[in-house]
Amino acid sequence: QVQLVESGGGLVQAGGSLRLSCAASGRTFSTFSSYSMGWFRQAPGKEREFVGGISWIQELTHYADPVKGRFTISRDNAKNTLYLQMNRLKPEDTAVYYCAASAVRLGVLPHDYDYWGQGTQVTVSS
Questions:
Q1: Are 107 and 41 in contact (CB under 8 A)?
Q2: How many angstroms separate the CA atoms of 93 and 100, rounded?
Q3: Burial environment of residue 1 by CB neighbours within 10 A (0 to 12, 13 to 18, 19 or more)
């Protein structure tokens, strides 16, 4: 069983910052460093959308246009943990944020990913 557990969400004012974490564990998830990891978000009434991700090889990052220059993804393979640093937050960033793991590649669609966390709520007030 693979587990991804997000944390770090909360309520923040516009212009503020939050850092989300995603801890990976599980008997079949012994090599975190071999998985590409992504962050997605889903606002009420909207589809789940790609925020950004980091590949397993060379740790290349890719971001969706709405968050470029504001969000930064990193990973600590020794701790089996993925991070999402969110700066200059906007009310439109309000959503449930999910981390996901892909054994194949860094994709931008939900079906590119094999495992998902339960999500953490981020609310940005204006």
A1: no
A2: 18
A3: exposed
Tens-place pLDDT, residues 4-32: 999 999 999 999 999 999 999 986 656 88
Contact between 99 and 4 (Cβ < 8 Å): yes
Would you tell me how many other CB atoms lie within 10 Å of the CB of residue 79? 12
pLDDT tens digits, one per residue of 51-61: 999 998 888 99
Tell me which amino acid residue 109 is: L
**Are 85 and 17 in contact, with CB atoms under 8 Å apart?**
yes
Tokens of 122: 């981020």
DSSP letter, residue 100 = E
Angular region, 67: left φ>0, alpha ψ -120 to 50, beta rest:
alpha
Round to whole Å and give the CA distance between 48 and 15.
23
Residue 99 makes CB contacts below 8 A (sequence gap 6+) with 4, 6, 20, 22, 37, 38, 39, 40, 82, 84, 116, 117
